[in-house]
Amino acid sequence: MSFKKETFQRRETAILDAATYLFGSKGYDLMTMNDVANAVGIAKPSLYKHFKSKEDLAAAALSRLIDQALAFLQTLPEDMDAYAKLKSLLTWGLQIRIDGGMPFLPSTNAPMREMLMRNQYYISRILQLNALILGFIQTAKQQKMLNSELPDEVILFNYYARSCDPTLDYLRLYSQLSPKEILNHLEKISFSGVCYVKN
Amino acid sequence: MSFKKETFQRRETAILDAATYLFGSKGYDLMTMNDVANAVGIAKPSLYKHFKSKEDLAAAALSRLIDQALAFLQTLPEDMDAYAKLKSLLTWGLQIRIDGGMPFLPSTNAPMREMLMRNQYYISRILQLNALILGFIQTAKQQKMLNSELPDEVILFNYYARSCDPTLDYLRLYSQLSPKEILNHLEKISFSGVCYVKN
DNA sequence: GTCTATAAGGAGATAGAC
DNA sequence: GTCTATCTCCTTATAGAC
Q: What tens digit of pLDDT does each residue of B51-98 get?
């Protein structure tokens, strides 16, 4: 009984892992349910015992990622300042992508976005994350670590966009830089830009 | 004779316009040849008299965009400094997207990228643009307008990524900011980041 | 060159045996 | 719950009349 349940859970995790990887590499449209089934090593109809549709599966994979981000924030020390927390979370997200994972918001195109906005669980998670990040942004502004002339929303959406920046993919493909170097450069320009800085 | 030829050309332009718009809004995978044909008001088989495949059509639309970027650079005054040229081109690209156009490199996913890399004309155009931008970057570094500690490639790919930054879409959808304000904020953070700047 | 009609293949989703 | 086999729909691409 309990063993069967656990097997079911482990399979669901495997499905989400596969979907996350395929989602990250091929994108939602090109990721087929056959791909997922083959990657896990099960038949396609079995997928539908876990997720009632492809949309559901994608939303579940993204929701899990956000849950992991929220869990990561929990592990940061209480006394860490807001700006450092923002930097840490970005590093965490970029590291996941370097390791072949999925970007935070692959929803560049409208249909994908609409699909996600129909999923209540996903919305509740993303709103929770938004609230936390907005809090950090406001605190960091007060501490003169972020530019107060920029609206909160601009910094928020820019922050999400940095975590799924295609610059990372291009550098990995077409430059000789090591993953570590890429990570360092991206962190740096995400906050400070590319302009010359006086010493 | 010449009239017929002109009609053909005008139709081809209309096809590229429609493809560009659909490509920008729905993305390559979800844009169907039916969509394009309906948008232009012609039958689907007629499309194939102009472009032998969907891949060809997409590559042609992107190539045209790059040609327009190259043409834009030609219009800039000779004595404009490199940094200002970089800023101008970015503004140009962002303005196109604000007007509902297509991002520069929608090729976040691997299959799309591979498709483009098989198209010789596209490659020749993008290489030409790359060379120009890299030249500007090197000059701007020498003039202490860009951070010399960053490799050229990092600045180059980051530059392309900024022109297709999803932050623009999110701000347009979920903020109250006007297009003009969005444009200004994006230009600013693209070069200078979000950090606090001393006066 | 443009259309109507259709081919060929692959997608998401499901019926029913085990 | 899992599989094999299948349904239905929609895609890209083309054949052939005009």
A: 999 999 999 999 999 999 999 999 999 999 999 999 999 999 999 999
Residues within 8 A of B (CB atoms), A 145-184 only:
145-148, 150-151, 153-155, 157-161, 164-167, 169-171, 174-175, 177
Within 13 Å of residue A185, how many CA atoms lie on the same side as its CB?
A: 25
Q: What's the pLDDT tens digit per position in A35-72? A: 999 999 999 999 999 999 999 999 999 999 999 999 99
C chain positions with any atom within 7 Å of a protein CB: 1-5, 10-16
Asked if strand D comes closer than 7 Å to A45 Cβ, the answer is yes
Question: Between B100 and B29, where is the model more confident?
Answer: B29
C-beta atoms surrounding B30 within 10 Å: 16
Closest nucleotide relative to residue B47's CA, C1' based: C2
Residue A174 CB neighbours (<10 A): 11
Beta pairing partners, B146: A195
pTM, to two decimals: 0.93
Contact between A40 and A19 under an 8 Å Cβ cutoff? The reply is no
Amino acid whose CA is nearest the C1' of C15: A45
- Closest residue to A194, CB basis, from B155, B166, B167: B155
More confident residue, B117 or A77: A77
Say how far apart CA B12 and CA B6 lie, in whole Å. Answer: 10
Best CA proximity match to B30, nearest among B3, B10, B58 = B58
The residues, ordered by sequence, that sit 6+ positions from A77 with a Cβ below 8 Å of its Cβ are: none
Q: Which residues of A touch B188 (CB under 8 A)?
A: 150
Please, what sign has the CA dihedral across residues B40, B46, B47, B49?
Answer: negative
Phi then psi for residue B43, to 5 deg, are -85, 150
